[in-house]
Write the structure tokens for this entry.
Amino acid sequence: MIQATQRILSRIGRATLAVFQSIGALILFALTAVSHIFRPPFYFGAFVRQLLNIGYFSLPVVGLTALFTGAALALQIYSGGSRFNAEAVVPQIVAIGMVRELGPVLVGLMIAARVTSSIAAEIATMKVTEQIDALTTLSTNPMKYLTTPRVLAAFLVVPLLVGIGDIIGIMGGFFVSTSRLGFNPSNYIQNTADFLTFIDIVSSLTKGAVFGFIAALMGCYYGMNSNRGAQGVGEATKSSVVVASVLILASNYLLTEMFFSS
Amino acid sequence: MITIKDLHKSFGPKTVLNGVNMHIAAGHSMVIIGGSGTGKSVLLKNILGLITPDSGSIEVNGIDPNTRNRDAFLDMFGMLFQGGALFDSLPIWQNVSFRLLQGKHKLSNSEAHEIAVEKLRRVGLRPEVADQYPGELSGGMQKRVGLARAIAAEPEIIFFDEPTTGLDPIMSGVINELIREIVVEMGATAMTITHDMSSVRAIADEVAMLHEGVVQWTGKVGDMDNSGDPYLDQFINARPDGPIEAIR
């Protein structure tokens, strides 16, 4: 009985230590990646390539997601609001819903799906095929060459994507509201503009920056720490997307608390 | 010159290097042979400082691999990886001249391209290859590109990790010949890991056999066939029976 209890306690202890070890390793990884932003050499070409890859090439998926979400949101608010004669608030709720929550979160999750997975798979494959070792032997720090440009590019470009997503989402709501629900176009735009505040936009862009950082960091971390073989690449890709998505949702809650709880 | 003294390295309970001693004189070509899992690649990674040994010492031209000036240390090396390890996202010329495009003494793109074409020609590849991507090349061509990259910055020391693995016998012969020519021409110190006995005979000045984490035998390549060492005899003659246990 005592031995069984000891075994259980020992397993719990090992698991707890492993969790803290992973958190510590991740924090150290993040700090190293950030510290390289301020220390030469800088790989400007790699940074620009990542800006294009993470920002420009994510525009279609971000645009379509925001467009359909904004349109569906308008229909839902109209339908729900009609139960207590509040159909007229569609422009305001679509604007606040897209800018404060749905825009940043959906863009964050889309970036996790598209960019985190791609970064993790690419870096893990580079590790499997010894390209990371090759970088080191060519006097190039893999953290500096692979991680820092990706993390910095995502941190800077995802807020822009969120801004674009917010606008497209609001436009989605606008098209549905004016074409199907009988709203006046100029009134709709006026109501949207009047209702949004500066802090709504700041919170949206801040969330974008944090989500971009998380998405790229998780891709790099799991890629760099992947196991060998095809299974290792698959595992790194899966884990990176899952952890990035959960961290994006958790940090979304914390940022919402920070901006709007008072 | 590479000097290794009493090198130990374990991964968990598994001891891989158990007191390796080795000396490679400047300008000599040493080939390391031994069965799979005997620690050849681990030894090489220890020398490059990609892995930290548990104990023992390594000196390359008098410098410890874990020196604070890692870039200067690594600048002494060129390496041909087993699978080529070419960067898929870069064209061949940027792969070859990668080191020349980084650091304080970085060259312009046109200068680096010119050197890449020259090195590609040296390993028997046409200049048109320079603008292709690694995925467009055959395994043999990728090895040649890897070789061109290893020699691009004219390093003092070149490592070759299984240079002929996965190649047909004719291409293996071509690569072996190229390695020998280039090492002699550059006067570089070379260290090669291989299972391929034709590579050993073509490339080596000296041979060291690793077995159970130690150097089982070392000597000149010409002495290999009459060493009298049963381990080496079994290995070089590919005999299933002998002191080295083969797991069937």
Q: What stands out?
A: The interface with chain B takes residues 41, 126, 129-131, 133-134, 136-140 of chain A (CB under 8 Å). Chain A has two domains: 1-35, 40-260. Residues 1-35 of chain A form one domain.
